[in-house]
Amino acid sequence: MNEEKVINKVKESIPLLMLLGLIILFALTTEGRFFTAYNLKVLLIQSSLYIIGGVGATFVMAHGNMDFSLGGIVAIAAGIGCVAGNEVTWLTLPMCILAGIVCSILVGLIHIYAKVPCFVVGFSFMFAGKGFTAALTSKVARFTPTALSKLDTFAFYLVMSLIVVVLGTFLLNYTKIGKFNKAIGSNMNAARLSGIAVNKYKLLAFLITGITVGITSFVNLIRSGGCTAQTGQSYETQVLLALALGGISMAGGSSVKMRSIVIGAILYMMLDNGLLLMGVSANWIDLIRGVIFILTVYISFDKKSVGFIA
């Protein structure tokens, strides 16, 4: 038992060790360019987009699902928020969040009550989001309200990320929403027999995802300056890769931790940033990132949890 605990602790520490190792590597190989104030700010700003949306996705993963709708919902919410904001500026954030909630709840309802696999529903919304923004921006450019441009500061992205992470950590670790979703991920039948309203708490996980994705779409509008046909493209894949790099349990359950998205998002963006500063060709970065991703997941992944080992 003690040996198993030690092994689990080592596995849990792999993403953090990988992060520290990359920091040391890039510090030694980029002639000081990695540790400039400007570069670190850019790195954290880029990471914030994945951290915020990933906090919500963590709740869905806690009960054993992977949500591929994130990018599509970001696109839809950003488009609606942008249109509303150009009529009344202060409506931008509320409409982004409202659109995110509605879309994510729809994903949850279709998955839970129509018995459609979550990833199938997610892919459908991913394509719907692309189509929505393509139609919305085909004739008229959609720009973020000018008054919101003053929010495009490092402090804004940092504060938004911290607020979402702190609230997400509290909900995951200290409320029924987090505890019950982890219980569902550990054993759905046992959770149901113990009196947990499985469908209710799974739907609440999608609600939280909708809120965080709505916030992400607002942050994306501030960062990019508008909504285009490319808004949200591949966002869901990047968030799920960041979660995996951060060591999250793919099967959900009690081992799910909020730190996975924070470590994973920074790791994900640091690879691009550091390798480019090292002078590595952009053509090789995806290959290197893929190899590191496979190695990290192979070492830290609990194969017993999904039945790979009898």
UniProtKB/TrEMBL annotation:
Keywords (alphabetical) are:
Cell membrane, Membrane, Transmembrane, Transmembrane helix
Q: Does the keyword Membrane apply?
A: yes
- CDD domains, per database record: TM_PBP1_transp_AraH_like
One Pfam family this chain carries?
A: BPD_transp_2
GO cellular component annotations of the record: plasma membrane
Molecular function as annotated in GO: transmembrane transporter activity
Cross-referenced InterPro entries: ABC_transp_permease
Give the stretches traversing the membrane: 13-30, 42-62, 68-86, 93-114, 154-174, 203-223, 235-253, 284-301
Indicate where this protein is primarily found.
membrane
How does this protein sit in the membrane? Multi-pass membrane protein
Q: Where in the cell is it found?
A: Cell membrane
Q: What is this protein called?
A: ABC transporter permease
Q: Which organism is it from?
A: Anaerosacchariphilus hominis
